[in-house]
Amino acid sequence: MRGNQLIPGLxxxxxxxxxxxxxxxxxxxxxDACGAAKLRAAGNACRALFTSEGRGSPVNDRAxxxxxxxxxxxxxxxxxxxxxxxxxxxxxxxxxxVTDLFLEIARFxxxxxxxxxxxxxxxxLAGATCRTLLRDxxxxxxxxxxxxxxxxxxxxxxxxxxxxxxxxxRCPTSFTHDAAANALESVxxxxxxxxxxxxLRELAARAGIPVGAAVEPEYLAQDPxxxxxxxxxxxxxxxxxxxxxxTTEPVRGQFNFVPGDALVDFAEQHGMRxxxxxLFWGRLQLPDYVKAAVDADDARAMLTSHISTxxxxxxxxxxxxxxxxxxxxxxxxxxxTDGLDDHVMLEKLGPGYIAEALAIARAADPAxxxxxNDFLVEAPGAKQDRFVRLATDLLAAGAPLDxxxxxxxxxxxxxxxxxxxxxxxxxxxxxxxxxxxxxxDVPALGRPGGVGAQGTYYRSIFAACLAVPGCxxxxxxxxxxxxxxxxxxxxxxxxxxxxxxxxxxxxAYFGARAAFLAH
Length: 519
Ligand code: XIL
Known about the structure:
By secondary structure, the protein is α/β, with parallel strands linked by helices. The chain contains 22 helices and eight strands. The protein has helices at 2-25, 33-54, 62-82, 93-111, 116-135, 137-144, 156-168, 178-191, 200-207, 217-222, 226-233, 245-248, 258-269, 288-291, 296-313, 344-349, 353-364, 382-396, 410-413, 418-429, 450-466, 507-518; strands at 211-215, 236-239, 273-281, 320-325, 369-374, 403-406, 434-440, 471-476. It has an eight-stranded parallel beta barrel with strand order 1-2-3-4-5-6-7-8, surrounded by six helices. Helix 15 (296-313) runs parallel beside helix 17 and helix 20 (418-429) runs parallel beside helix 21 (450-466). The longest helix is centred in the N-terminal third of the chain and has 24 residues, at 2-25. The radius of gyration is 27 Å and the shape is elongated.
């Protein structure tokens, strides 16, 4: 009896402790009904402000904007108080954030250069989105009370929709929506009680993984937008081409590390890790002299010298290597090679060339993680099965294999759903291997849903990786659509990445952010 009576008492004490602990750790007072009313009012003012910008009557001085914010805020408070809502504990930082938000909008109004009608349409859209984000007090309230079932606590779906709808408004001039995006992101930050929003790499770091992109040194050097965007948003660098055999050893015995070194220097200057690709790739970018190996000894001598020289050169600076890239046949056909891609190393050394390559790399840098990387393995089928069997056999034979790269060129791979991809990832992590998504891109040109659907898809792909602890990184195959390899590989004008030709963040970017924020 006594025990039974004690338990409810204990429960109440614990509950009180929890509530007190929560109140003590909260940075901002919880958003209450009064705060929600104020945010709704701010939403209306936000929309009005965008509209007045669109009509060509820009409001750009701080005093006026502060006054607009304060007026909206004060009016909401008066209405709420009159309705019996207690406003005494409502957060005081929010009006300042709203003022900052309005200033962003004003800056946006000044920075645009479209025709008036076009500008007005864009601004009306931004205003409507702003209002949606701010007035969604149901979400905000649930968020403030820490309800994890809040459907979209960070308003990301509204941002994805905003970007998708923005793209549909066709304007005769180039027209930047980055300032509008910043303004709207401030709304999201406000809803979350933060003063600023985080870059993708910071969000990725909070989730414990790097987010990377493939780059070329000449793009970084020539395009003034490239380096700052890449450095701000990404924490991992993959040389798109400059660590492949045709660059690193174009002539037998003559090594060239100049472009690769430039990339590693850049990565180190910006606190990024480097993922090297590829020590051996039979399919492309393999010099003719390698293909002309006369016998097994000759082939082995070339493989050994190449891998050990390249890996030693970058020891301690390149965190991991694709030791063999694309070891499997194109579409997983078994053929006469048991599903292994047919090339000089397979012909001269047999299937054991893969274990040999791994061992050479391990000896040259014992700390580097060693990967095999392939495509068309993200969905179930013969090729995925063969990849699993290859990895299983290598591990059983004691080969130094640490991880599997799933390229994720989704256009080639048939746009597998997140579930399908997650299953693929788990097949390899179940073997004790790490997995990375190494070359993600998602064609959207002329496809249903365009960049909006692409954004939603990016979100699901990042989420699939985040759902599996052994999935260690996501790398996109490029930064801006402008430099996507697909444009030179049969898909001119393709738009598969997170930044568009003008370096605007696309729905894909906000989709990736959403995955991290929801994690
Ligand atoms: C591609 C590069 O993006 C191109 O610039 C180059 O001409 C060919 O190689 N799978 C891979 C990558 O593993 O190395 C390929 O990169 C894209 C497909």
